[in-house]
């Protein structure tokens, strides 16, 4: 019996055993990763929404995929950047399906039809325009529902979600101040205590609108999660480690954050200046003294919607690069904690808390320069790390690709992520030597193809499906590209280019609607052959 075969038994005995039992039991599971906003359907308004999850879940179930991975679904404002949300709790109102709210009337139907037609032919998502248009529909719906039976349901929602009134007050003030950061609000509004803010700004008609949006988003997302459970598909959410400085959470809970500092990354081969991200770092001693209450509530809120969750930048729980908040780059920074000897216990303590808080299975994003103690702790606890095939090499010896049979069981294997090129684009831009080396693993004795179209792309995916990882998760673009349904160059189907800002990021819209995926010749047979 190989070392990896023996490792399979660890799923039942590791610290995360309860979470594996609640999900896959350690059985190998194939999944699809796609941002919710990227989904396209015949009924939607400009971008994917909670109703589209039902159709995507059905696609997964019908094609043998047991997991659907999403990017963060929190309120991302008008720019739609999912990792810089204005709340770590609130769902994005832009994802509410207006046709499922329950509003009727000719004027409503006309407005819904006109808005749908306005964006129907768009190849990419114009985030500000689409999000404003969807919010206009939500306001129209609220005007018809306010002061009706829904009011009592909203009150009950608030009693079960104590973050909601604070979030609503923050949104009211944010709107009233032209979307300026709370640090620039006049008349001391930015320094109000949470209870004062709720009393003054969280009880009026504008606040009720924002609470209505959260009630409806929660109702629709829970319905999607219930449907996924009925179809035997796990939903994987995403928990960004950091919180935007201009957010309801930082505004209301500044005691949790070291406001004078910001997180970032040290200089490396990709950036000689390092990076500064602007997010405040956590005051972990203060958070621990509160019993990690905010984190536990955050995770329990996410557990309403997800079975698994991706821990973004998990190494930040062990140590995080810290700079002064006004630093122009990441050169003059340091790791917190500064003492390497405590990194392991620091990270383990936080991860133990996360396991205690819910039955959701955590899956860690551990890319980049990662200290040994981080990955060894994850392995000991039974928490999967991430393996992106193009970066899985024997870096300390011959620097060649690691064979799929040597992938650790506690891992999530993938060909690409939202922050890198889809695999077909990477193939076109990487060195010929890498293509030859990889293809020798895929199809021994055959020359490496010039591109990953058609049979070549399918052969690569079929080979990669043999990874020994507990999860093999494929980006929807990587699945669809070999079937010739992604028009143009592969580069345009990337989700995000880190370090850049523009309309090219977070705006990819799948060119094939969910309803038409079943009509792609050979797609279902191919997917079923993987599992």
Please characterize this protein's 3D structure.
There is one protein chain. The protein is of the alpha/beta class and 531 residues long. The chain is built from 20 helices and 14 strands. The protein has helices at residues 3-7, 17-21, 50-62, 106-119, 127-145, 150-160, 163-176, 194-201, 205-230, 248-252, 284-289, 293-302, 343-357, 372-381, 423-429, 432-442, 454-464, 476-480, 514-517, 523-530, and strands at 29-33, 67-69, 234-239, 257-258, 261-265, 275-276, 281-282, 308-311, 320-324, 334-336, 361-364, 385-388, 411-414, 471-475. The strands form 3 sheets. Strands 11-8-3-2-1-14-13-12 form an 8-stranded parallel beta sheet. Strand 1, helix 3 and strand 2 form a beta-alpha-beta unit. The radius of gyration is 23 Å and the shape is globular. Mean pLDDT is 95; it is low at 1-6.
């Amino acid at each position: 019996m190989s070392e990896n075969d023996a490792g399979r038994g660890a799923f039942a005995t590791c610290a995360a055993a309860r979470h594996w039992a609640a999900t896959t039991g350690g059985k190998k599971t194939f999944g699809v990763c796609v941002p919710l906003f990227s989904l396209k359907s015949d009924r939607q308004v400009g971008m994917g929404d909670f109703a589209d999850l039902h159709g995507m879940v059905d696609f997964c179930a019908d094609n043998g995929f047991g997991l659907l991975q999403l990017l963060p679904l929190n309120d991302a404002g008008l720019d739609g950047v999912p990792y810089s949300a204005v709340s770590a709790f609130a769902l994005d109102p832009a994802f509410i399906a207006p046709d499922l709210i329950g509003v009727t009337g000719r004027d409503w139907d006309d407005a819904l039809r006109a808005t749908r037609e306005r964006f129907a032919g768009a190849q990419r998502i114009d985030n500000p325009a689409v999000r404003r248009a969807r919010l206009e529909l939500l306001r129209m719906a609220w005007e018809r529902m306010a002061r009706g039976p829904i009011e009592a349901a909203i009150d009950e929602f608030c009693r079960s979600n104590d973050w909601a009134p604070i979030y609503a007050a923050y949104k009211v003030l944010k709107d009233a101040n032209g979307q300026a950061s709370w640090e620039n609000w006049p008349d001391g509004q930015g320094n109000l205590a949470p209870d004062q803010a709720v009393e003054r700004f969280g009880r009026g008609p504008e606040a009720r609108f924002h609470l209505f949006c959260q009630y409806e988003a929660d109702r629709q997302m829970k319905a999607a999660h219930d449907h996924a459970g009925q179809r035997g598909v796990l939903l994987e959410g995403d928990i960004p480690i950091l919180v935007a400085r201009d957010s309801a959470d930082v505004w209301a809970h500044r005691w949790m954050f070291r406001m004078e500092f910001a997180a970032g990354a040290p200089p490396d081969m990709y950036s000689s200046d390092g990076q500064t991200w602007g997010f405040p770092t956590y005051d972990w001693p203060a958070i621990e003294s509160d019993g990690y209450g905010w984190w536990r509530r955050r995770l329990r809120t996410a557990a309403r919607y997800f079975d698994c969750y991706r821990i973004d930048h998990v190494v930040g729980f062990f140590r995080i690069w810290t700079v002064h908040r006004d630093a122009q780059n990441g050169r003059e920074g340091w790791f917190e904690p500064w003492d390497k000897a405590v990194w392991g216990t620091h990270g383990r303590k936080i991860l133990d808390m996360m396991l205690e808080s819910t039955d959701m299975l955590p899956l860690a994003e551990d890319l980049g320069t990662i200290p040994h103690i981080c990955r060894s702790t994850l392995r000991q606890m039974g928490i999967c790390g991430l393996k992106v095939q193009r970066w899985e090499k024997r870096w300390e010896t011959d620097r060649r690709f690691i064979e799929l049979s040597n992938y650790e069981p506690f891992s999530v294997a993938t060909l690409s992520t939202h922050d890198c090129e889809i695999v077909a684009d990477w193939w076109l831009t990487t060195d010929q030597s890498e293509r030859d080396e990889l293809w020798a693993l895929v199809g021994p004795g055959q020359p490496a193809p010039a591109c990953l179209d058609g049979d070549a792309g399918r052969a690569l995916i079929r080979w990669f499906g043999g990874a020994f990882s507990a999860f093999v998760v494929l980006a929807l673009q990587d699945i669809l590209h070999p079937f010739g349904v992604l028009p143009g160059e592969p580069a345009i189907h990337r989700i995000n280019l880190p370090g850049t800002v523009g309309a090219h990021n977070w705006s990819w819209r799948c060119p094939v609607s969910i309803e038409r995926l079943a009509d792609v010749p050979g797609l279902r047979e191919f997917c079923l052959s993987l599992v």
